[in-house]
Every structure is written in structure tokens, then in C-alpha cells.
Specification:
alpha+beta; Beta-Lactamase; Heat Shock Protein 90; 2 domains; 5-stranded antiparallel sheet; 8 helices; about 15% strand
Length: about 350
């Protein structure tokens, strides 16, 4: 009776120790995986934890869901260095990728392999295949249970990373589509306004040319020319919103992979409370100009849309001692001119 009780006590102690170890290593695995933000690092952490648990050499094949990528081998300190990357071993790993089932050593499928291969999977998506060198010694139930839990943590981390990346891509796509819509709307509006005036003036000339005196004809031709030249930019804004005799300077410099272009003037400047709104569509601030058709507030919004579409940014600041400076960036590139 005493021997039986002692045996049960030892068994309970052993089971408690195993449960504590399993909890500790899974918690450690989860904490390590949460720190990583790319597939290679997640697989590296997983390999380290499995090697630490089993004290066996392992090989990991990353996967894009369709094919296996180049494998990485992880060895324990006293490893004999058995060759784990061979055509036969890879064939077993590929079978596991296609079928999402265990195979290889210590299984009923392709048992002549040196490793037992298992899929790192979440649902039907296989993120990789792990090969564990059996060396004719199968895993016990506890080792197998913990190993599967570690691989489950790995698959979940990879799935979360994929979902986050897809969400980010969707956000970027939505922003690009919104940018495209804003750009097309702004361009359409900016083009429609002068073109409507051009077509109207041209039609007036065609219908009433003989009835017009020379001064009216010259004025109509001038209106057509002015409208054709008005396609709202930074220089145009600098001219419109600065008094006669102001100085407008355009400069450019290259820093690293970026080109910096600035348009500055020594006019009255822009109040601070307006600087945060001047790139908004249809915002024209408190500035009033005689030609009301040019007060649509689309110019700077259109400029921002074009610069953003090219991957740059546009900013506004005060010029010294007075005036305004607009600076926009564009990615530098080389152009081959064929003359």
C-alpha cells in the first residue's frame, strides 16, 4: 500500500511538473512571437522553442501557400549533423504541404524519411512545414502535445500577421482610390470652368464676329487666351494673392532620394489659422480677388492631390521677413533623353 501511494505521488508530481513546463514554454512562445513582425522571425522563434523542447534537430520549410521555399535547419548542441535536406526529405515535406497531414518517420505515410513532417497551418492555409529528426526515437505523448501547441501558436501568429498586412493593403488601396477620385474630381472641375468659358467665347465670336467692334474682338480673344492659361498651380496662386511688384522665387534642391521644390513670395502671407485649411477642397480663406471664377479653392487641393499621387508631400510656412513659402517633395529619378 505504501509503495502504491508513493508511486501515485511520484506520478502526480511528474504530471504537475509537466503541466507547469508546458504552461511556461507556451507562455514564453506567445510572448516571443508577439515581438516579431515578419514571417522569417516568427518561424525562427518557433524553431528555437521546438528545438529547446525536444532536444532534436529540425528543419523548417516556409511556404507561400502553394510552394515550399528554401529550408532552414536548426541543430541542437550535441547534434551529429545528419543530412536533413535531401530530395527524398523534401518530397515528403511537399506531400505534407499538399495534403495538410503528418508524414515521414514514425507515421504510416512515407515512413522511410529521417524526419517526421507536420504542417504549420491555420484552417486550410499552410504557412510552412516542420521536419523533426526522429533518429528512430518517437516522441512521447507529452512532447507531441507541447510541440503541436507551439506550432499552433506559430500558425496563429502568422495568420494574424497576414490579416494585419491585408488590412493595411486594403487601407492603402482605399486611400489611393479616394485620392484618385479627389484628383479626378478636382481636375474635372478645374478644367470644366475655363473650358466652358473658352467654348462660350469662341461660340460668341463665331456667331457675332461681324457685329463686334475691334476692341470687343480683342477682349474676347484675350479672355480665351487667359482661360487657356489658367490651370490652377503654386506660381499662379503666388501671382494672384500678392500685390503688384512682389517677388516670386522658385528653387529646387536634391537631398538623398528626394527633390525639394519651393515657391516663395514676399507678399502679405497666410494667417496661421488658415494654414491648416488651405489644402482643403473649395477653401479660399479670407482672400478676395476681382476675378471670382478663380476663387473656387481648388488650386492647392489639386496641387496636393498631384504631389501625393507621386509619393511626395506639400507644406506651407512663413517666408522671412514676410510672405509665404510652399515646399513640395517628389521622388528623384533618372530620365534618358533620346535626341
Amino acid at each position: 500500500m505504501t509503495g502504491s501511494l508513493a508511486g501515485k505521488l511520484k506520478q502526480n508530481v511528474r504530471q504537475s511538473a509537466q503541466a507547469a513546463f508546458r504552461t511556461r514554454i507556451l507562455l514564453e512562445t506567445n510572448q516571443l512571437l508577439q515581438k516579431e513582425n515578419n514571417e522569417a522571425a516568427i518561424l525562427h522563434v518557433t524553431a528555437g522553442q521546438i528545438t529547446k523542447l525536444l532536444k532534436r534537430d529540425i528543419v523548417i520549410y516556409p511556404s507561400d501557400g502553394k510552394d515550399l521555399k528554401n529550408p532552414d535547419v536548426y541543430r541542437v548542441a550535441d547534434s551529429e549533423g545528419c543530412e536533413l535536406v535531401t530530395a527524398n526529405e523534401k518530397a515528403v515535406a511537399e506531400w505534407v504541404l499538399r495534403n495538410n497531414k503528418h508524414a515521414g518517420a514514425a507515421t504510416d505515410t512515407l515512413a522511410n524519411a529521417k524526419c517526421q513532417y507536420l504542417a504549420i497551418c491555420q484552417g486550410n492555409r499552410v504557412y510552412g512545414v516542420v521536419g523533426i529528426h526522429m533518429d528512430e526515437i518517437p516522441l512521447d505523448a507529452f512532447e507531441n502535445s507541447v510541440m503541436l501547441s507551439i506550432m499552433g501558436e506559430c500558425a496563429l501568429a502568422l495568420e494574424n500577421m497576414k490579416n494585419a498586412r491585408e488590412k493595411e493593403d486594403a487601407t492603402v488601396l482605399a486611400k489611393n482610390e479616394q485620392l484618385r477620385a479627389n484628383l479626378l474630381r478636382a481636375i474635372s472641375h478645374d478644367l470644366r470652368t475655363p473650358l466652358t468659358s473658352i467654348s462660350g467665347s469662341a461660340g460668341n465670336l463665331m456667331a457675332n464676329y461681324q457685329k463686334m467692334d475691334n476692341a470687343m474682338r480683342v477682349q474676347t480673344f484675350t479672355d480665351i487666351y487667359d482661360d487657356s492659361m489658367w490651370l490652377i498651380n503654386l506660381v499662379d496662386n503666388a501671382i494672384k494673392y500678392t500685390p503688384a511688384g512682389s517677388v516670386i522665387e522658385i528653387s529646387m534642391k536634391k537631398e538623398g532620394e528626394w527633390i525639394y521644390v519651393s515657391v516663395s513670395d514676399n507678399g502679405p502671407g497666410i494667417p496661421d489659422e488658415q494654414k491648416t485649411h488651405i489644402f482643403d477642397m473649395f477653401y479660399s480663406g479670407a482672400n478676395k480677388i476681382a476675378d471670382s471664377r478663380r476663387s473656387l479653392g481648388l488650386g492647392l487641393s489639386l496641387c496636393k492631390s498631384i504631389v501625393t499621387a507621386h509619393g511626395g508631400v506639400i507644406t506651407v510656412s512663413d517666408n522671412q521677413p514676410k510672405g509665404t513659402v510652399f515646399i513640395f517633395t517628389l521622388p528623384a529619378g533618372e530620365v534618358n533623353l533620346n535626341e
